[in-house]
Structure formats: C-alpha cells, structure tokens
Amino acid sequence: MSTFKSEFMRTVHARGMVHQCSDAERLDELLATGPRVAYIGFDCTADSLHVGHLLQIMLLRWWQKTGHKPIALMGGGTTKIGDPSGRDETRQLLTDEQIVANMASIKGTFANYLTFGDGATDAVMANNADWLDTLLYIPLLRDVGRHFSVNRMLTMDSVRLRLERDQPLTFLEFNYMILQSYDFVELWKRHLCMVQMGGSDQWGNIVMGADLGRRMAGAELFALTSPLLATSSGAKMGKTAAGAVWLNGSRLSTYDFWQYWRNTEDADVGRFLRLFTELPLEEVARLEALGGAEINEAKKILATEVTGLCHGKVAAAQAAETARQTFEQGTLAADLPTVEIARARLQAGVPAFELFAEAGLADSKGEARRLIKGGGARVNDAAVTSETQPVSLTDTGADGRIKLSAGKKRHALVRAV
RNA sequence: GGAGGGGUGGCCGAGCGGUCAAUGGCAGCUGACUGUAAAUCAGCCGGUUUACACCUACGAAGGUUCGAAUCCUUCCCCCUCCA
Question: Which end of chain A is more exposed for a tag (fewer CB within 10 A), N or C?
Fold first, then answer.
C-alpha cells in the first residue's frame, strides 16, 4: 500500500478510495514523474449531481491536489444514449433541451472542487457531445467498430446481467460502451489523457476504452475505479425522505445537506471522513476512535468539512451554527427553512395541518394530518394535539416567528408578512 | 411473421367479476428507547375531506356488466420458443 511512489496513489489508496486499478505499478511510476491527465465522465440525467457522485469528484480533486490535471467530462452526447450499467430498465430518453439545461446546472458544482484554467494542472471541462454528435455511422463502424468483439461485449456486466435476468437491452444502449470507449481515445488525442476513473460499475466500460486506445492509437491507458458505497446498515447511500442528497443548493439546502452528514451512522464515520474530507489520516483515526456519544463530535466535523467543500466554508459554518442552536440550545436559528404567511391569515388562525403542509414539513394535507395524529408535530416545541388546532399571531415569538417541528429533526419557521 | 407468457402503488410482488385504494416484503415517515447513531418494538404510509363521501390509480383506448385490476376487442411495450 504505502510502497507507492506517487503521492496520488499513496493518498487515494490510504483513504480507501480505490476499488480496482489496471497496472497500478506502472501508473504509479508515470504519476511520480510528472503531471498527468485523468478524466471522469458525468452524465447529465438530472439538473444536479448527488452524493453518489461525490467520491468521483473527490478523486478528481485529489488528482489535481497531488499535481496532475483533471478533466471533468460532461456527457452531453452519451446522455442521449443512456448507460445501461447497473440497471434493469432502459433509461427514459431525455430531450436535447433537457440535457443542455441539466449540464448547465451541473457545471457549477465542479467550480467548488476544482481549479479551472489553462495551466499545466488546471482542470478542464469537456463535453463529449462536441465529438459524438458529429460522428458518421459508416466511418465509426469501420474505424471503431472493428475493434470491438461482440463476444466480449456480451460478457460485460452491464450487458450480461440484463440478458441473464431476461431484461430488455436495446441496441441503442448496447452502443453506450462503444461511445464511452471512444471518449477515452478522443481525450487521449486532445489532452493526452491517460487515466479514466469512475465508480466500480464503470470498470468494464473503462477497460474497453483503454483497450480501444491501445488498438487505435497505441496509447497506454489506465483504469481506476472507486468502491461502491453503501451505509453500514446496507442502505444505498444518498437517499433521504426527500429523495436523493443533491449537491446543488437549489435542490437541497445547505442546512439539510449538513444534516445528512451529521446523521451518519456511527460505523461509517471514519470511512466517510477518509472518503469525503481532506482531514489528515491521523486526525481521522483520532475522531474515529471516539466512543459512545463522543462520536457526535466527529459527525459534526464530518458534516462541516463535507459541506464546506461542497457549499463553501461560510455556508457550512452557518449550517453548523443553525444546527447547534436548534438542537443543542433549543433556540430558534435564523436560517431554518422559512415560509411566509399573510398576516391576515395568521390573525384569523390557520389550521395546524394546513400550516405544516405549507411549510413543507408534509407533502400533503393528509400527510400533515397523519403527522399530527401520530403525535409528531409541534408548534413552538409544544405538541399539536388536534389537526385543526389554529396557529395564530399569538403564537409568534419575540422575534416575530413561529417554530414548527415535524419529528425531532425537521424544523421550519413561519413568519407573518 | 407464427405460437405461448407478461405489463399492478417509490421498488419487489400477490390478486384474476363485487367485501380492492388493492395481501405481503423493502424503502420512507412518526412514536418509544437513545447520543440529531444503529438495532429493536409500535403506529402510519394515493389525493381532497371533521366525517359520510368523492376524485385519481392496476400499460393505452374502447366495450360487456347493476358492478372490472380482474371478462371481451383493438393498440403499444417486454419475455420465451419457432421461422
């Protein structure tokens, strides 16, 4: 492990970020002798990346931090095909407009993790639509297709698993790995990019790209994948009540993002600190060793560190402070999610179930009613006993706000306007 | 192209003329216990509604019937075998 010569390989291995790597020794040598180029592709299937992508982003960040040049490849072209890896069903086809809009929305995330520019180790953003959109079918078949063995393609997990489970696989999707392979070669030609990284489900696609590069351009290309992430209790990472844990602040507030990490299971704290923060490993070891309730301190550090990288240190500190006031002091924090309700309505009194639904603490009025019936709703920390119990201006605190709580962790403020 | 099987709520998966907003499992929410953890136990888990009730939903559209997720027709999609 620690016998690696290059800082990158030492770091990512020590932090448990590597699942598989092709010819690690040779790659290590190359990395030790000068700046190299690596890329990771991100498909534009949603308008935000989520925590499932975070490990990949951290790989690019370490890549740059240890003296190399990262490329964030936006899958403007491949998203039109849909990666069949790891799924039993064909992805819903997105329109070109959706893809373009998603890409624009995703791009901002990288600015927080990577330094872009024209320097030797500055990050570059590319879009594979730039070369995939204009490909011609016959030349593609002759130049690229002849290097692919269908026999081999059928053994790839993404294909084999579909076939074994009698799930459909369209010819469209069957082509995905060819285009991803082509990307690798194209980036080699354009930027001398010699490494493709990705999640472990991408191993097959990446290795095919490396092979293609060798055949088409005589290039020596490498594959490096990160482990598949699950929480210790086995759940897929990144799911909450509200859905995925998004990286864009417009999809998930900084406070909620911070809370997600704060609520990490005990058993995951050390692992997550290594994977998603840049704290020195000795510090991680110390935090991880904390027992019992003390580990909560480690969770706060984890939350603030991860949030700091994603949303900035100021926003992270603010989220931490909001949480501290809310949970440790039981006071009202200023930047809890806030809804504004017309003064006149509050004057008259708003039924509690309506207010909870409007504040976003319940998805529907029915759910708000159930929440109240189940005893999980509180106004200013006093349990709501009746669904229709009116909440009015008289509930307003000194600072002009009413605090609503759904369960112990979800809070919102109501302000009369 | 021929023959057969199938498309059910976020997912898996029962149901096969009424008692079906649809068994069960997973996921999720709330409560208890705790440390804003896990595990465990309990309740909830389409929408509007105090409620009665109504609306939406079992691939799509029609039809039969007092009544259809369940039967018929057409269409779309998937799987298997044959060509």
Answer: N
Decide: helix, strand or coil at residue A98. helix
Report the DSSP beta bridge partners of residue A339: A414
As a rounded value in angstroms, the CA-to-C1' distance for A161 and B44 is 37
Is the distance from CB of A272 to CB of A264 less than 8 angstroms?
yes
What type of residue sits at position A365?
A: K
CA A379 to chain centre: 34
Please indicate, yes or no, whether residues A287 and A356 belong to a single structural domain of this protein: no
Is A239 among the annotated ligand-binding positions?
yes
With a 7 Å cutoff on the CB, does A358 touch strand B? no
Q: Which nucleotide is nearest to A322 (CA to C1')?
A: B36
Residues 181-240 of A with CB under 7 A from strand B: 232-233, 235, 239-240
Residue at A146 is within a domain = yes
Spatial distance from the CA of A162 to the C1' of B2 (Å): 26
In a domain? residue A241: no
Nearest to A215 by CA among A156, A147, A132: A147
pLDDT, one tens digit per residue, over A73-83 is 999 999 888 88
The mean pLDDT value for A358-379 works out to 89
Q: What is the pLDDT of residues A119-129, one digit of tens each?
A: 999 999 999 99
Q: What is the CATH number of the domain that holds A68?
A: 3.40.50.620
In a domain, A63, yes or no: yes
Residue A366: domain span: 338-416
CA pair distance A101, A415, nearest whole angstrom: 34
A16 and A53 belong to one structural domain: yes
Do A152 and A194 have their domain in common?
Answer: yes
Q: Which nucleotides of strand B are protein-proximal, with an atom < 7 A from a CB?
A: 12, 27-31, 34-39, 43-50, 78-80
Distance CA A108, CA A240 (A): 23
Q: Residue A403 pairs with which residues in a beta bridge?
A: A413
Residue A324 lies in a domain: yes
CA atoms within 13 A on the CB side of A281: 8
Nucleic strand B under 7 Å from the C-beta of A323: yes
* A36, A194 contact by CB (below 8 A): yes
pLDDT, position A195: 97
pTM: 0.89
Spatial separation of the C-alpha atoms in residues A412 and A106, rounded to whole Å: 28
| Letter string b/e over residues A265-289, b meaning 16 or more CB atoms within 10 A of that residue's CB | eeebbbbbbbbbbebeeeebeebbe
The CATH number assigned to the domain holding A347 equals 3.10.290.10
